[in-house]
Amino acid sequence: MQLNEFRRAKTVLIFLTALVIVSIGCSLSGCGTGRRKSLVELKVIVAGSLLAPFQAVEKEFEAQNPDIDVKLEGHGSVQVIRNVTELGNIADLTVVADAQLIPAMMYQTQIPEQGGPYADWLIEFSTNRLGLAYHEGSAYRAEINADNWPQIISRPDVTVGLADPRIDAMGYRTLMVLQLAQDFYQDDTIFEKTVGSAFDPPMAISRDDGVCTIIVPEVVRSKESRVKLRAYSIQLMALLESGDLDYSFEYESVAKQRGLGFLALPPAIDLSSPDYEKEYRTVDVRLDFRRFSSVLPDFQGTRIVYGLSIPRNAPHPEEAVELVQFLLGSDGQRIFEESWQPLWSAPVCDNVKQLPEALNSLFP
After folding, report:
1. How far apart are alpha carbons 5 and 122 in whole angstroms?
2. Alpha-carbon distance 140 to 142, whole Å?
3. pLDDT tens-place string over residues 235-282
4. Which of 245, 224, 223, 226 is nearest to 236 (CA)?
5. 317-328 and 330-338 are packed helices; what angle lies between their axes, rounded to 10 degrees?
């Protein structure tokens, strides 16, 4: 081979080698494909009752988006938002079991230094029903039904679980259900026999203009071993599964996800039906203190509605939008259906003008 030909061949070889190196580098980093150059960790804080379906969402979403790592964290709904508004826990998406908490706590609280509220829109996307979860060995399991449950769970040899109404939406919703039951069954002793006398100091009740207000004291201590108080309702499920509880107020989806029995209550008191919204609003729960700076001490009786929002200080808002699109799309619909908590076919947004543009198509 002559010298010039050798030089030309060498030049071509160098060029081809460089081209291969660039191609390999682009395949790894996503050059020209729209892929991210590095792994994005997406922090998602959800209500405890949503952990099971969101774990399934996480698995499938990550399979479709290998450059996104979803980091799930579960709490009671009040605590979900406190993590963002008070505890400095930066999140990309917040999801709660009580949608009214987002405007009450995030719209009204300012982001330090940056200014403006933590959120200015929410999407309502699902509902649930509240009832009694139980296990195979629960006392009087063969006897309890939708008519006699208040008498069964108030018996001295029956243990009942209650989530903390100061932290968990399930806690204050349980109190609402018990008060609604008094009117439904025409028995004004239900609240007192079930939980009213079980705490020291007791929970007080006041009535004004057709609304019954349950007042929760700053310190909530159970003085009866038959009523077990835990911070979060999800903690009570472990006590049920171990047989340390006979019954616990819980969402239907959670009981079924964990293979527990579920006693459905009448729609007039289970906080699930839009037909009874007027009745639900005749009761509210008020904290007799301001435990947390961003938590307004008044929870209104409403139908169970789940809500989500992307905080305005989210570090990865575009990826959070992608997750919301996945959640509310066909894959999310299937996953939630399999978890006994179907998504609404038509989610609702309270402030479409403030939505990220990529989510506008959800609300034509």
Report:
1. 69
2. 5
3. 999 999 999 999 999 999 999 999 999 999 999 999 999 999 999 999
4. 245
5. 60
Amino acid at 219: V
CA distance 191 to 229: 16
pTM over cut 0.70: yes
3-state secondary structure the chain: CCHHHHHHHHHHHHHHHHHHHHHHHHHHHCCCCCCCCCCEEEEEEEEHHHHHHHHHHHHHHHHHCCCEEEEEEEECHHHHHHHHHCCCCCCCEEEECCCCHHHHHHHCCECCCCCCECCCCCEEEECCCEEEEECCCCCCCCCCCCCCHHHHHCCCCCCEEEECCCCCHHHHHHHHHHHHHHHHHCCCCHHHHHCHHHECCCCEEEEECCEEEEEECCCCCECCCCEEEECCHHHHHHHHHHCCCCEEEEEHHHHHHCCCEEECCCCCCCCCCHHHHHHHCCEEEEECCCCCCCCCCEEECCCCCEEEECCCCCCCHHHHHHHHHHHHCHHHHHHHHHCCCCEEEEEEECCHHHCCHHHHHHCC
Residues 6+ apart with CB under 8 A from 192: none
Nearby residues of 126 by Cβ (< 8 Å), 6 or more positions away: 305, 306, 336, 341, 342, 343, 344
> What tokens were used for 327?
């959640």
What is the sign of the dihedral through the CA atoms of 252, 258, 259 and 261? Answer: negative
Residues 334 and 230: their CA atoms lie apart, in Å, by 32
CB atoms within 10 A of CB 327: 25
Kindly report the length of the chain: 364
Write out pLDDT tens, residues 282-337: 999 998 766 666 666 789 999 999 999 999 999 999 999 999 999 999 999 999 99
β pairing state of 298-300 and 283-287 = antiparallel
Phi, psi of 286 (to 5 degrees): -120, 130
Q: How far apart are CA 343 and CA 68, in angstroms?
A: 23
Give the integer Cα–Cα distance in Å for 170 and 101. 13
Q: How many CB atoms lie within 10 A of CB 32?
A: 8
